[in-house]
Write a structure and sequence with these properties.
Chain A: GO terms for molecular function: ATP binding; ATP hydrolysis activity. Chain A: InterPro entries: AAA+_ATPase, ABC_transporter-like_ATP-bd, ABC_transporter-like_CS, P-loop_NTPase. Chain A: This is ABC transporter ATP-binding protein. The complex is a heterodimer of chains A (261) and B (249). By secondary structure, chain A is α/β, with parallel strands linked by helices. Chain A has a domain at 3-92 and 160-247: Rossmann fold (3-Layer(aba) Sandwich). Chain A is 36% helix and 26% strand. In chain A, the strands form 2 sheets. In chain A, strands 6-7-8-3-9-10 form a 6-stranded mixed β-sheet, sandwiched between helices. Chain A has a 4-stranded antiparallel β-sheet with strand order 2-1-4-5, with helices on one face. Chain B is mainly α. In chain B, helix 1 packs across helix 8 (96-125), helix 5 (53-71) runs antiparallel to helix 8 and helix 9 packs antiparallel against helix 12. Chain B is globular, with a radius of gyration of 18 Å. Classes of the chains: A alpha/beta (261), B mainly alpha (249). The interface between A and B is medium-sized, with 32 and 24 residues.
Chain lengths: 261, 249
């Protein structure tokens, strides 16, 4: 299958008052078309920074990447047309109705007015928002808000959908609904999904392949079972143990010599 | 495309303003209080300018309205940054210049509307000025708010927290108001203060609007006022657009 995202040495250094901070030190990765990729890592590993570079929000300070066949640096406008992005914080105004946000979003993707209205109805039907169209976004539940955020990102039928911790703060039922939605997007529309998460059960259940980052570089990658076998010691290892083994942040091994006898 | 995008962003934010009618009127309160309770004190004083005291005070109040109002416009961007709205718009193909222009044109619309209310109240209080002069005054309010709102959004994208933004803007706005002779003309000032005030761009705008209010449309003050207003607007819109394009560091 063709690669829809490929990054080589992608890096970002922030200049701060306390000197340079290397948030991302060199990410190499390939995402194949129609794949659900789980992008994991401890807090501060550089997940969100990588996502923000791949979606053109942040200029890389090193390396290169192509998304849907377009070079990130040379043609950011084409990358924007090809991808949808749902940030952790979502991105809707609480005082505006669901309908107005969806229609304006359609217009931002340059749909004509009638087209934006039509697309709004389609998305609302597809994501179960039809009854909520005239509510202000502040009045939505957490799960409904997430569905709206995703609907906003799907406005232009992107080839690649980036989701940054999409289920954080959702109840178990809403999480299960969201997993179904992500699978359905891939199955029905062939959308490639690139998602970050802290929930290892989510990564295990949803992702075809995992990329684990630590300290700004890729620490391991592969299918969940391959990673369990290679790093967790057996295919039956939990992803939790595997993750801790890879990032080296597990509980310290029992000290062979007691400190005091 | 730029026109389409600007109209789209403008429409979104104008609807936002129209939803909070109270805030729309509230902005005019401070200058209105000056007009009512400070204006009458000046009527018998020698202000060293042509025309009535109202023709001196009202131009100052108009620019005060723009100065304080537009400089604080960035607060909305700080909120929108927290809500993720700015980033969500920046991943769409929408023009970066339009993201700024749509917002600042909304601000200019709101402040010109408030300026009209202020001038109408001033007419009731006793202001008499030629209509072309009054219209020229509104153009200056529009240019001032375009430039200061651009600057404010650029600062808001950089500092990101209200705790930093508020004090910073206060530190800029208070000296700007005092040093540009908004309340009383700088022609009353001792030499050093008059010289100092020439380093504040708003000084030239106030002088120009005061000339317009007494019917002098071709004075040197007017020329400098136009040059400073247009130049400052060009500069701040350029800076603002750059920030919307590259923000996120």
């Amino acid at each position: 299958m063709a690669a829809v995202i490929s990054a080589a040495g992608l890096a970002r250094t922030f200049q701060t008052r306390h000197g340079p901070v290397e948030a991302v030190r060199g990410i190499d990765l390939t995402v194949r078309e129609g794949e659900i990729l789980g992008f994991l890592g401890p807090n501060g590993a550089g997940k969100t920074t990588t996502l923000r570079m791949l979606t053109t929000l942040l200029k890389p300070t090193g390396g290169a990447a192509t998304v849907a066949g377009h070079d990130l640096a040379a043609d950011p406008a084409a990358v924007r047309r090809a991808c949808g992005y749902v940030a952790q914080s979502g991105g809707v105004d609480p005082q505006i109705t669901v309908r107005e946000e969806l229609v304006t979003q359609g217009r931002m993707y340059r749909l004509p007015k009638a087209g934006a209205v039509r697309r709004t109805a389609e998305l609302a039907r597809d994501l179960g928002l039809t009854e909520l169209l005239d509510r202000k976004t502040a009045a939505l539940s957490g799960g409904q808000r997430r569905r709206l955020d995703i609907a906003m990102a799907l406005t232009h039928r992107p080839k690649v959908l980036f989701l940054d911790e999409p289920t954080t703060g959702l109840d178990p039922g809403s999480r299960a609904d969201l997993w179904d939605l992500v699978r359905r997007l891939r199955d029905e529309y062939g959308t490639t999904v690139f998602l970050t998460t802290h929930y290892l059960d989510e990564a295990d259940a949803l992702a075809d392949r995992l990329v684990i980052v630590d300290k700004g570089v890729v620490a391991a990658e592969g299918t969940p079972s391959a990673l369990k076998l290679a790093h967790g010691g057996s295919i039956d290892a939990t992803l939790q143990d595997t993750f801790l083994a890879i990032t080296g942040r597990g509980p310290a091994a029992a000290d062979p010599a007691p400190v005091a006898v | 495309m730029l026109l389409h995008d600007t109209a789209l962003v403008y429409g979104r934010y104008l609807r936002q303003s129209l939803r909070s009618r109270f805030a729309l009127l509230f902005g005019v309160l401070t200058p209105l209080l000056y007009l009512l309770f400070f204006g009458p004190l000046l009527t018998g004083l020698p202000l060293g300018e042509q025309g009535s005291s109202w023709q001196v005070l009202v131009p100052g109040l108009l620019l005060q309205l723009g100065l304080f109002g537009a400089l604080f416009a960035g607060f909305t961007v700080i909120m929108e940054n927290a809500q993720g709205v700015v980033e969500r718009m920046r991943v769409t193909p929408v023009s970066r210049l339009a993201l700024l222009l749509g917002r600042v044109l909304r601000d200019a619309t709101v402040f010109v509307f408030q300026a009209v209310l202020l001038v109408l109240s001033a007419v009731v209080m006793g202001l008499r000025a030629p209509l072309p002069g009054i219209l020229i005054g509104f153009v200056f309010v529009a240019l001032l708010t375009l430039s200061l709102a651009s600057l404010s959004y650029a600062i808001a994208m950089k500092v990101r927290t209200p705790q930093e933004f508020g004090p910073l803007i206060n530190a800029v706005s208070m000296p700007s108001m005092l040093l540009s002779g908004l309340m009383l003309p700088m022609s009353l000032a001792p030499g050093w203060l008059d010289v100092l005030s020439h380093f504040v761009p708003f000084r030239y705008l106030v002088d120009a609007v005061r000339d317009a209010y007494v019917g002098q449309y071709t004075s040197a003050h007017m020329l400098y006022g136009v040059l400073v207003a247009v130049g400052f607007t060009g500069l701040t819109v350029t800076v603002g657009t750059r920030v919307f394009r590259t923000a996120g560091a």
